[in-house]
Every structure is written in C-alpha cells, then in structure tokens.
Amino acid sequence: xxxxxxxPRIAALPTKxxxxxxxxxxxxxxxxxxxxxxxxxxKNVPFIAHEMVRxxxxxxxxxxxxxxxxxxxEFPQVD
Length: 79
Fold this sequence. Notes:
The protein is mainly α. The chain is built from 3 helices and 2 strands; from the N terminus they run αβαβα. It has helices spanning 2-11, 26-35, 68-74, and strands at 20-22, 47-49.
C-alpha cells in the first residue's frame, strides 16, 4: 500500500505538520488518513477536506464526490 510506504517519511519530517488538507474525494481521504495515521492521535492537528484541493471529476465512481453527510459519518476525524 503506497500510503503506508510514505509513513516513515512523514514521521522523519524535521517539523510535525500542523494541518492536513485533503481532497473531499473518498479515496483521497482514505489515503490521507493512512499516510498521516500517526497524527490522528494528536487532536491538535486538524484534518480538513477542502474542495479547492479536489482532483478533476472523472467518469469513474471513485472520482465522484459523495454527499458531505455520508463523508462525515465515514470519516468523523476529518472536518
């Protein structure tokens, strides 16, 4: 899993991220939560899904944005 492979690089950063901004697409949130898993326990590091970092809309289901209410239920740790 590529997201797990990047975890050691994130852990080795000289300064800890203060904010994690993710695309609101489900697969991007999933990847971000795995990659930055170590930061999830730190309640001072917000995880935010923002439309302005969203990929282009594609024709595949995985490229579509789900309703915000559904995303909030599945990913409560992301604002």
